[in-house]
Write a structure and sequence with these properties.
InterPro entries: Cbl_synth_CobG-like, NIR_SIR_4Fe-4S, NiRdtase/SiRdtase_haem-b_fer, Nit/Sulf_reduc_fer-like_dom_sf, NO2/SO3_Rdtase_4Fe4S_sf. Keywords: 4Fe-4S, Heme, Iron, Iron-sulfur, Metal-binding, Oxidoreductase. This is Precorrin-3B synthase. Its EC number is 1.14.13.83. By secondary structure, this protein is α+β, with helices and mostly antiparallel strands. It folds into 2 domains: 307 residues, Sulfite Reductase Hemoprotein, domain 2, CATH 3.90.480.10; 85 residues, no CATH class. Helix content is 24%, strand content 23%. The chain has a 5-stranded antiparallel β-sheet. A hairpin with a 4-residue loop joins strand 14 and strand 15. The longest helix has 18 residues. It is globular, with a radius of gyration of 21 Å.
Length: 399
């Protein structure tokens, strides 16, 4: 696939003109937010946006209906959330959210600032399309299945597999060289691309980039047996005991839209928070008493700590009024479906249906609601589609 148009991914310095007003996307490498940064985001959502912080499938955040882009830029810069004007849109880095706290072979989070700084240090890497994605998986397999362009996947405490276009390249690399190799891969992609936005859009892109790396860097080989990478569907929700006897809380966010007031409460807990690529949060490093208080206060505000909640099965695109292409307000319809018990937990068979009024949609298991056939924001993996058309909703069962 050769593209002739530049990618149109929004940033803070390049807003997207959505149907409901300007939209700004803020990159959050590794999803990590300090309490001060979360506070700054919440304040910006109230003062300059629609009052909500939207979580994206890359662990970034965005504001809708932005009123004053210059002030937003100043505030985010002051909060350390906009460290580069030239590279802001290429800082798409997801990392295993629980890494270093529980599970996994190693802690990948220290690699995130190193990768981010390395990206920003190379002027040429500002030419990367805003759609590229870096993944850092600590071996548990939660983010390697997201189909990143360049990634590393821990095999033990000191060895990573290099992933290209979402697949194992067969290259193995010591931890100390992992960031450098991902940056080299990003440079190699720029050499190979002919307008493509993603590595997988280049015919044999992963294999060609592997060959490029083998030819340009000494000491590499690609002879390892490739890993099979699966999409991870168990998102961290609820009470999670960290290895250091503290507690992390996984919190689902309804349709990925976090009200600023809820964000303020989370920021007041004064602990690191991770935005996950599943449009949820992980609040970390709590003692048991604090964790109990967080659940007691924030569950009634709508955060989801129950892994069996139907809300965790449902995602939706922007829909009407945010998207001019939308045929209906899918988020309102999806919300009504959850509230009225028409989101059925997994187990029952799902049948294809069409020409349904919103109140007649009953869908099973993980489901994505879309305001048109483009199905923006659809999660990876086995997902039933609920798609608005001119003659009603269509249900397309997961494959
Ligand atoms: S799926 Fe269609 S309606 Fe929904 S955001 Fe994308 S283009 Fe808009």
């Amino acid at each position: 696939m050769t593209r002739t148009d530049p990618d149109s991914c929004p940033g803070v310095l390049r807003l997207h003109q959505a149907a409901d007003g300007p939209l700004a996307r803020v990159r959050v490498p590794g999803g990590r937010l300090s309490p001060e940064q979360l506070h700054a985001l919440a304040a910006a959502a109230v003062d300059l946006g629609d009052g909500n912080i939207e979580l994206t499938s890359r662990g970034n955040v965005q504001f809708r209906q932005v009123r004053d882009a210059a002030t937003l830029t100043d505030r985010l810069t002051e909060a350390g959330l906009l460290p580069s004007a030239t590279h802001e849109r290429v800082r798409n880095v997801v990392a295993s959210p629980l890494s270093g706290r529980l599970g996994g072979w190693t802690d990948v989070h220290p690699l995130v600032p190193a990768l981010d700084e390395g990206l920003r240090a190379h002027p040429r890497l500002a030419e990367l399309p805003g759609r590229v994605l870096f993944t850092l998986d600590d071996g548990r397999g939660d983010v390697s299945g997201l189909g990143g362009d360049f990634g590393v996947h821990a095999l033990d405490e000191n060895t990573y597999a290099l992933l290209l276009a979402g697949k194992d390249s067969g290259v193995r690399v010591p931890a100390a060289e992992a960031v450098d190799l991902m940056l080299a891969a990003a440079h190699g992609f720029l050499e190979l691309r002919d307008g493509q936005w993603r590595l997988h859009e280049i015919p044999d892109g992963g294999a060609r980039l592997t060959d490029h790396l083998l030819a340009t860097r000494s000491g590499l080989d690609a002879s390892a047996q490739p890993l099979e990478l699966a999409v991870h569907e168990d998102i961290p929700i609820g009470w999670l005991n960290q290895d250091d006897e503290r507690v992390a809380l996984g919190a689902g966010v309804r349709l990925g839209s976090l009200p600023a007031r809820t964000a303020e409460f989370i920021a007041a807990v004064e602990r690191p928070v991770f935005v996950t690529p599943w449009r949820s949060l992980v609040i970390t490093d709590l003692d048991e008493w604090a964790a109990e208080q967080v659940v007691r206060v924030l569950a009634p505000m709508g955060l989801i700590f129950d892994a069996n909640s139907s809300w965790l099965l449902v995602s939706a695109c922007a829909g009407m009024p945010g998207c001019a292409k939308s045929l209906t307000d899918v988020r309102a319809d999806a919300t009504e479906a959850v509230d009225s018990g028409r989101v059925v937990p997994t187990g029952a068979p799902q049948f294809a249906r069409e020409r349904l009024d919103a109140e007649d949609v009953v869908a099973v298991g993980r489901q994505h609601w879309s305001g048109c056939g483009r199905r923006c924001g659809r999660p990876k993996g086995s997902v039933t589609d609920v798609v608005a058309g001119v003659d009603g909703y269509r249900i397309v069962p997961a494959e």
